[in-house]
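JOB MANIFEST
job_type = single_chain_structure
chain_count = 1
residues = 279
[input]
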Amino acid sequence: MKHLLLLCVFAILVSSCSNSSSNTKTITIAGSSTVLPIISNAAELYKETHPDIKIIVNAGGSGVGVNQVGSQKVNIGMISRDITSKEKGLYPSILFKTQAIGKDAVIPAISSEIYDAGITTLTLEQIAKIYKGEITNWSALQGPNKDILVIDKEKSRGTRHVFMATVMNNKEADAPGADLVLGSNNEEQTALVQSDAAIGMLSMAWLNNDVKGTSIQTPNGEPVAPTLSNIIEGKFPITRDLTIVTNGNPTGEVKNFIDFLLSPQGQSIVTDNGYVSIK
């Protein structure tokens, strides 16, 4: 899976960046680190045939994506969760328009050492107890006698919203058992790799040989593995849309770029990055 995280360290243009402009020559985008690889790769490919268009892409998380659109600082926000009523209330004059560009799953991710030691399936209840601080050692789950390093995400992050909504029945639930609170998928993946006893929450595309995704045991006792086929068929319990958001219906070059994302060529970028095409 390719993760060409082209984190363009450019200043976001904040002067007159309105999504309704039909003559936009610079497209500014910010938000979810999960959606970032898709948009970054798509931007590079799009500019090959549109050399007069400048596309600036920054990360920051889903909350940043919503707020930057709400404050009209970017043309497109990247989000991997729903926009909250509180966020909408902060920007009453903004008409948030969302468009799914792919699908993803949020996976309970653990250090490869723990997976290889036999922890390959967890129940939602077990995961919840880990994040509540009620299970603190892998031996309680028939694993090795190692303290669990529990990795949480910042509360504004889309990955956390989706994960906690399913695991804790509350997308904004506290996690008193957490040892680390991180931001991007990249940061969390690095922490999982550097530990031999960690658990976290990651987009499926960020799993690798050092960071393994556990199956989730359903109430009937059947483990559901985090595979693309199970995501496509709706079997895996923690899934979400990968979404972009604009202020009102996009027009001009912003619309053209979004149309490119939804085209067969754009959707191939989604699948190349390890996600599921909406087509």
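[summary]
Residues 1-22 have pLDDT under 50 and may be disordered.
The chain is about 30% helix and 25% strand.
exit_status = 0
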